[in-house]
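step=encode ok
step=design start
structure_in=
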């Protein structure tokens, strides 16, 4: 979608440090990391928020979780622990309106989140 920074990353029009990609999903390092490991897992399909996902996106959403699991293993945070975050709308902190899963690891996380 025009003007969407994550669509531009997926299209390689904007540079990013890619950690994983396949025909459906791209994962890249967050430009402003909140933990030693901070990767964003995004679908190539432009879905603005989780509220916009439909039944046909079910496998895609599941795929994003499994890519997170694979990257957590590769980046050696699977055993120590990691957090997956999917902010939905501004009240939850969403700032880029192309659905993305944050994979955070490599430090201690507290609960409840801020
Ligand atoms: P959210 O606040 O959940 O929408 O998360 C958006 C995330 O995208 C933030 O953690 C930003 O640091 C990150 N971000 C924004 N632009 C870029 C970019 N060009 N490359 C990598 N990460 C980005």
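sequence_out=
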């Amino acid at each position: 979608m025009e003007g969407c920074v994550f669509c531009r990353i997926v299209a390689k029009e904007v540079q990013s440090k890619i950690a994983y990609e396949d025909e459906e999903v791209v994962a890249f390092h967050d430009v402003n990391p909140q933990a030693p490991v901070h990767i964003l897992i995004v679908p190539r399909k432009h879905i603005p928020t989780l509220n916009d996902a439909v039944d046909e996106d079910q496998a895609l959403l599941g795929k994003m979780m499994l890519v997170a699991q694979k990257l957590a293993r590769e980046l050696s945070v699977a055993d120590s622990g990691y957090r997956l975050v999917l902010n939905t709308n501004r009240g939850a902190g969403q700032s880029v309106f192309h659905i993305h899963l944050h994979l955070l690891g490599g430090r201690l996380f507290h609960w409840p989140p801020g």
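step=design ok
step=annotate ok -> The radius of gyration is 14 Å.
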